[in-house]
Amino acid sequence: MHAEEKQQLSSLSNREREITMAIIINLDVMMAMRKKGLTELAGEIDITLANLSILKNNKAKAIRLSTLNEICKALNCQPGDLLQYVDDEETSAEEDSSDMKET
Questions:
Q1: What residue ranges define each of the domains in the chain, with the CATH number in brackets?
Q2: Candidate from 7-16, 55-64, 80-89 with smallest mean pLDDT
Q3: Over the stretch 46-60, which tens digit does the pLDDT of each residue have?
């Protein structure tokens, strides 16, 4: 990375960095397909409701592979059923529209 790129990256706010996340967690979709609620799934995989909710609402910055493994076991699915790559432009448009709904 060149010095100019580093400068541009460091000048981005946290919000702008969040927008560039191109991995979507489709946990809510898979839970609905399996007819499992948040409380039920949290109990099965031994994770707090708060942390599972963060994953479900696409607010997570990272996920441990061990957690992903447990979720896949409980929902009888593959990691690819939960994780989706979306182009940065599509991600920005989705987040902009969700921000409008929250206000």
A1: 28-92 (1.10.260.40)
A2: 7-16
A3: 999 999 999 999 999
